[in-house]
Amino acid sequence: MDPCAFVRLTVANLALKVPLASKPSRSAVHPSSSPCFCTIKLCNFPQQTADVPYIPSENQFPDNHPHSIAATFHLSKADINKLAARSIFSTKLCLKIAVYTGRSGATCGVGSGRLLGRVTLPMDLTGTDSRACVFHNGWISVGKEDNKGSSAQFHLNVKAEPDLRFVFQFDGEPECSPQVFQIRGNIRQPVFTCKFSFRNTGDRNQRSRPLQSETSSSRSWLSSFGSERERSGKERKGWSITVHDLSGSPVAAASMLTPFVASPGTDRVSRSNPGSWLILRPGDGTWKPWGRLEAWRERGSSNGLGYRLELIPEMSPSTAIVVAESTLSTKRGGKFVIDLGGNGSNWKNTAVSATSPGCSGDFGYGLWPFCMYRGFVMSARVEGEGKCSKPCVEVSVQHVNCTEDAAAYVALAAAVDLSMDACRQFCERLRKELSNPHDLVG
Fold this sequence. Notes:
By secondary structure, the chain is mostly beta strands. The chain folds into two domains: 6-162, C2 domain (Immunoglobulin-like, Sandwich); 165-434, no CATH class. The chain has five helices and 24 strands.
């Protein structure tokens, strides 16, 4: 499999210090006594927000400080070419950062932070898909000078580095048992086929079977990870999707582990009682659990699809580690992302969960026994409810050593996409491909 060229642009090691002459007063907000944050914007990419730690003015930024990433932008070769063409006819590509004192967020629709100053950093991304480039590493003046000619100093590290990825595209919706193509430029090459099916959920023994061909030892995985209590009322259960290579051999699977059940008195799958999937990989003649995906419907005006992904150590299944937790818009869809090093919720939740022996807490590098999972791992683009969704999956080359590796991420992407339907309001009818003939409701 040939990878596609991508570039990972990171903004890291943020810090702020102000001149000694700047003293707190009743009429001003000072970084030395207040929280600081910044907004980071690159062209048409979504704006990102990050906290900015304060450093006393007499101190220097420590050389041994952990490389703390504040924002990450992922650019394909097509993105870079488009930005390069745009810069010919307009202003040069710039990274724009606005630094604020005060807490991030808004009150009554009005931003709560006070603008301290702006930083504009010109960049040329040409060639960064094949070599790393540091655009800035150090201090830069920001804001107005005081009466002694000094201004606040803002520290940042901005660099771009190659990030090769495999790109896979479903040729149809997962429930329609589509082919999966590998994409490289204008070349589309079939690499997998998917088979969507229902497990017969009429009895407990059948409910614990992700695949008809699995052995008795592997059937215990579903019962050991899933809930054993009986479900009543509205539920969706028994969905399963198997990924095969071109020879027809099964190389990964996603099987509904816990039924998606409506909370009492509602038509919604709640966060307190989520449905879940078990992502499986073949090994030693049987299926072995690789990850567990939980999904639910968020409350409130956002009404999004909440999700949480845990990776399951083969030698210690009880010490699963959360590597992704966020929300997708049920209306617009979005990207499911595993990124152990970004500023998003993925990294924050991973840091909290990394409590195993030998954990360094640095970027997820110490996520024993998942030390091989670093930086960007994978992303999957899915559409919102009622829209035709053909998930596009990107997987970092460093996390694919065999066909089964790639297939596991494809199965995970299918489970995320199917969760969008599994978490639909139970008052809404699902398409016929998702209507389980063994269920009376769903």
